[in-house]
């Protein structure tokens, strides 16, 4: 938790904002953007950009116009235009970097989705906002019971109340089309609010809820990743990974997004390697591919008559033999190109030393030896 102004419970335990978007310092690293232009001044006679980026619950962000020329800065809680009523959010970015963010979202300054800012949130606005947020967990629990009673094949993953408490957005996932007209009637009559249903994908659900991945760090989709590209099993094959669904799947149940991070580098490196189904015809016989090491640029081949002995050769030498085969010539023997591979596995050593852990303890003296030494001293006197 990076917040420095979080309140504490009894016993000094910090409450924290729990990544719900109400952090006043905006230091939860929830899809945050580093403002590297904050210490730079604008040229003379140039007005600051009047559009700001506002964050809501679980990293949901939108852009709003400052038409009233309010003095705004990062971390301010403001009331913005919504349909209907108003919503409460926290400013996460101002200035020239907002133009870049608008370009990434394919939005223009005069787009209809860029609404206006009403005012800075008053104390009454913040109290209503926090009271609405406190009800979300209980409303979600009751809503799931209603979904089970109606027998709908859907999963309510998250609920977000509007800042004025007049509307709630229900985020759900479903594998097929769901008729939730009866559900909306029951939810509206039970909670006396306006209901909006929004279907999200499994990756979007994981991004909203957050979590910790198998790497030990917070999920990429909930911290910085915004575009969810499709991930295929071919990405794992290119990187020589075992096709184990339990290891390759993320918290969303889909293939991990990080499989695409180094895919281009692997594809570029594999262009220097021959196809794995290519047979090498040498003077000693036909050789078949066994395995490869992309990082070292090596391939292992074994003769058809002696499949136990593998020979490690470089990709360049393998391409030479293939080029000779295309000219109806046999290549040199694999033994002429064999590279001795040294096992570079790390050797773990005892950094503390080979001494015993009890080396600082006083050794116990032999009582008999001590008694004999004392007797000898007495006899000498």
Features:
381 residues, 12 helices, 19% strand, disordered N terminus, GMP Synthetase, Chain A, domain 3, five-stranded mixed beta barrel, four-stranded antiparallel beta sheet
Care to give the gist of this entry?
The chain is of the alpha+beta class and 381 residues long. It is built from twelve helices and twelve strands.
Q: Shape, please?
A: extended
* Overall average pLDDT: 84
Rg calc: 33 Å
Approximately how much helix is present in the residues? 25-40%
Helix and strand sequence = EEEEHEHHEEHEHHHHHEEEEHHH
Report the β-strand fraction as a percent range: 15-25%
Which strands sit side by side, in order, in the main sheet?
Answer: 1-2-5-3-4
Quick one: how many beta strands? 12
What are the segments in which pLDDT stays under 50 over at least 5 consecutive residues? 1-5, 19-27
Gap from first CA to last CA: 76 Å
Main sheet characteristics: 5 strands, mixed, barrel
Assembly type of the chains comes to single chain
Number of helices: 12
Provide the structure class: alpha+beta
Describe the structure.
The chain is of the alpha+beta class. Among the domains are: 17-122, no CATH class; 135-203, K homology (KH) domain (GMP Synthetase, Chain A, domain 3); 280-337, no CATH class. The protein is built from twelve helices and twelve strands. The protein has helices at residues 97-104, 123-134, 136-150, 181-191, 202-209, 220-223, 233-238, 245-248, 263-270, 315-326, 334-337, 367-380, and strands spanning 51-55, 61-65, 77-81, 86-93, 115-120, 155-161, 167-173, 194-199, 280-282, 285-293, 298-303, 310-314. The protein has a five-stranded mixed barrel with strand order 1-2-5-3-4. Strands 9-10-11-12 form a four-stranded antiparallel β-sheet. Strand 3 and strand 4 (86-93) form a beta hairpin. Helix 3 (136-150) packs antiparallel against helix 4 (181-191). The longest helix is centred in the middle third of the chain and has 15 residues, at 136-150.
